[in-house]
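Example with several molecule types.
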Amino acid sequence: MFSLAVVNGLVMGTIYALAALGVSLVVGIMNVINFAHGEFYILAGYFSYLFADALGWPVAAAMVAAVALVFAAGVLVEYLLIRPTYGNDMYSLILTFILSIVLQNAYLHIFGPYPKKPPNWVKGATNFFDQFYYGNQRLVALAAGAAVIGALFVLIKTTWFGRVVRATSQDREMAEMNGVNTVGVNLVSFGLGCALAGAAGVILSPIFPVTPTAGVAVALTSFVIVVLGGMGSLWGCVVGGLVIGLVESFGATYVSTGYKHLFDFVILLGVLLVRPSGLFGKPAA
Amino acid sequence: MRGRWAKRLGMALAVTLGMGSAWAADTVKIGVVGPRTGGAAATGKAFEEGIQIALDYVNSHGGVLGKKLEVVFEDTAGSPDKAAAAFERLVTRDKVAMVLGESHSSAALAEIEVANRLQVPFVVVEAWADPITAKNYKWVFRAGPSNSGVVNETIAKWVEHEGFKRVYIVAENTDWGLGIKGLCEKALKKRGIQYASLVTERKAQDHYTELAKIKQFDPDVVLAFVYGTGLHYFIAQAGEVGLTPKAVILDGAGPPSLWPDFWTNVGEYGDKECFVSSMHEKVELTPLATHFRKAYIKAFGKKPSDYKSRSIFDAILIAADAINRAGSLDAGKIVSALETTSLEVTRGTVRFGTTKGGPEYHHWMPPMLVIQWQNREQVVLYPPQAATGKLKR
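Resulting structure tokens for the full complex:
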């Protein structure tokens, strides 16, 4: 039971972290809280289902196309909805909240109320030392989630785009004075944030089929992780995701899944009492 | 001058309003409550289908009180607060004569309080928690299963009939789940059958750690009281961790095992799964069940699967019959008519209990079956007189 709780906590935590990284990136650079984050997760799941199941594409091609389309959808939303609200964060909050409701209803009308599941990449389960069986699809999800997180860190830490993003998030005015097109950074960053939610969606939807309203829980968990890890901290997201994944897994093993959200809340409250800026957040000046 | 115009405007308004009420009087309105959004939105779709067929049937058979029957459907999203508000809107805004529907016990328990306060007849269709009728409200009826009925008449007897020795109960943390879990524990204890149980989050997706606990108990059968997509997750994951096929899973509600995406979501792990249902694809209890199947195929180009479309069809026929026999839209007269109902619907003949003191009051319990998927074919296991095959493991 203990080993299963550890493995399952790590798998779920990695995917949570991936989804939360999208929120963190957008908050860190644009100071925008995207309430429709979970709906982009679901959108990727639906695209993946459409391409792989309905159109019969290879699973890998369906996944890449789904994430690319969600990136494009994010760019479009930034251009049409977020950009006109620059300077008033409350408007973007309200707009993304409305977008979230509109998208949920659109999914219901287009895809219906029944859950949709893209095909598994792998089938069956692996026997861990005769202690427990673990689904192969989940093991692949762990590897894929970790690979995407790794790629994001390489992008942010080692590339020109990453330097521009970090400069913008640290001091927007100074970045602009140094010739950085911060409007363009916002556009790409918002798209990237949505694409990260989409990546989590395509990885997880073969395990947890998507429904029109399933994104709400994903967004909620992502926000908890971002606050827990420290607003805007990418490392904080990874650690926060793993903490939440493990706490939920141990809680479900030794207490009950009925208290899942209570565990999240208690751990968040505990950390904020000790470090109000979150695990990796910088204390306010 | 201004006074004359005011008079003309007033007359025009009066005529318009008069015409409005005359138009409204061309139909008799009844309300339906149920989830069209949220985790059980599939029920709303099933309800819409059943309503369409019922309205065609009732209106082609003379309607209600010589007028056409009209249905106003309000979404409850499975949430008690939305459900109470929706019920109140139907009564105060739409002026419905009575209300039918619901499939979430928590929502129905909120709605019966509104029905009682506003004194509006309410026929609950697919919300199973015992207190819904055990509260013995004059205005509340139930033309569908109750937790105690399903457990004592079907599930517990089936467990005993199959000779299961070790039973695990998994229940979602809702009024339905917790209520039916308690009743199952009581029934199994009475029969001396060993059991264990756990409560799961209604919206939980990941059941791995729970399944590890269940596997340690080594049950013969798992009674899963988890509704909606959650059941699909549970069955798929039970297969992955190797709990099934050694143990058999019983879906204690039914419809999720009949949804169109069931097989896509659970794959081969769905084979040998059992479920409780008031409908079997090849068993039709009355001529109206045959009519329903044919009308459904004609309207939607597919066979009916989610039995909740048939439940709401029956409820609308019960409502139309009661209003016709009451001879008016007076709520008290409709209640009296409902109490003397003797109407053949798709699931048998409806007669509401009138003895106060328990959940049987104002309740009609349709017969329920235990069905098993065997190579994607439905095989009736219980009751024995209706069985079309034996349990496979």
